[in-house]
Design a protein that fits this description.
By secondary structure, this protein is α/β, with parallel strands linked by helices. Helices cover 33% and strands 22% of the residues.
């Protein structure tokens, strides 16, 4: 896909993702926090902030000063560089990484920072003028309204999971087992210390620089039992409170640069991480859980690779149904993916979700000695995105 672009190993980091309204992140400007947090992460990774010459940011929920986008966030980071903002619903975190790769590959920029973030807590409410209606202004709207109503279909996000479960004749028992297994994977990764290598505890400061709190856990993660899951009320086919993700707040960042600069910046210069290919597809209306699987299917067809070639498989799964559908479409055992946890468990702040997944996937691939890494997820009601990266050692 890209010839020049590389991700320098070990220069990344993510905040923990506290659930909606459970932490001090609910009280701050998320853009300012994200810029300050990236500065902190780069310091911990021993990468001078002035190494960056461009910044790609991604978020999905409006925040104060969003008009000024990446240049403002860069100022909060302490390094005034140009850049831009992008968003593609839940695919934002992966698409931002790919766009940074394009900036490097075209030669436009040398070291590009990727910074994704969102704060679902107290998302702003807007009044939108609608001159075609009999009223001058129509409904007050916020992000929660969007989750509950796709203007193209009238369906809520949860409806897409139910429709996909019925189409593929997914069994409720299997979905409960997927959810339980994903939680077990997360707690195993947490207990092993794996997550400590990618997640960074961060202080939240007020405008006077005084501490409001410390973000050092994925607040909102529950320990589940199969009995407890089976006792939950079904909200739609195969969807319960225990088999879907939860809204949360957070940020994640990484760098994209050339191969030469990656060797200079990484604590392990022998590790080479390159982009291979990506695909984005759209399925039938309101069949979101199917779309990521179709994106993967297209991607493998385009590259000639197979699922057997993948050393790490990791996805954004807002519903456990997503993984069950993926098994049906790709004939791939869902137990072989998301081995260090997934967004089904630790939450979904949207913008940074897939960036954190990319970081965890690459870290896991390095542990395994390298190979192809498959990352995929959804983007709103019927779009799926997938990308393959390759980790090589001794390069």
């Amino acid at each position: 896909m890209f010839g020049k672009a590389r991700i320098p190993y070990g220069t990344w980091g993510s905040s923990y993702f506290p659930a909606w309204q459970t932490s001090a992140l609910a009280e701050v400007n998320i853009g300012q926090f994200a810029g300050e947090a990236m500065n902190r992460i780069l310091g911990l990774r021993q990468v001078p902030t002035n190494t960056l010459d461009y910044l790609v940011i991604g978020s999905t929920i409006p925040w104060h000063w969003k008009f000024w986008n990446a240049p403002l966030v860069a100022s909060c980071m302490g390094h005034r560089v140009p850049g831009f903002h992008m968003e593609q619903a839940c695919a934002t975190g992966l698409q931002a990484v790919l766009l940074a790769g394009a900036e490097v590959d075209t030669g436009a920029h040398d070291v590009v920072g990727v910074l994704t973030f969102d704060r679902t807590s107290d998302s702003p409410v807007g009044v939108f003028p609608e001159r075609r209606a009999h009223e001058r202004t129509l409904p007050i709207s916020d992000v929660w309204d969007n989750f509950g109503f796709d203007p193209a279909t009238g369906n809520a996000m949860i409806t897409t999971a139910g429709l996909a479960a019925r189409k593929y004749k997914i069994d409720r028992q299997e979905v409960d087992e997927v959810a339980l297994y994903r939680h077990e994977q997360y707690f195993e990764a947490k207990g092993s210390g794996f997550l400590d290598r990618v997640l960074v505890p961060l202080e939240v400061l007020n405008l006077q620089g005084r501490p409001l709190g410390r973000i050092d856990d994925d607040l909102g993660v529950r320990k589940l039992t199969l009995e407890g899951l089976r006792a939950m009320r079904e909200l739609d086919t195969c969807v319960t409170g225990g088999t879907q993700t939860h809204a949360s707040d957070g940020m994640a960042s990484l760098l994209v640069t050339t191969r030469g600069r990656a060797k200079e910046l990484s604590p392990r210069p022998e590790i080479d991480i390159r982009f291979v290919a990506k695909s984005v597809v759209r399925t039938q209306p309101s069949l979101m859980p199917e779309a990521p699987a179709l994106a993967v299917k297209k991607l493998l067809g385009d590259t000639g690779l197979t699922m057997a070639d993948m050393i790490v498989v990791k996805n954004h799964n807002p519903f456990a149904v997503n993984d069950a559908v993926f098994t049906r479409v790709m004939d791939f055992d869902w137990k072989k993916m998301n081995t260090t946890g997934s967004s089904l468990v630790w939450g979904h702040p949207q913008g940074p979700t897939l960036t954190r997944i990319v970081i965890e996937a690459l870290e896991e691939a390095v542990d395994l000695g390298g190979g192809y890494v498959l990352v995929f997820g959804c983007a709103a009601g019927d779009v799926g995105i997938a990308a393959i990266l390759k980790v090589s050692e001794g390069a």
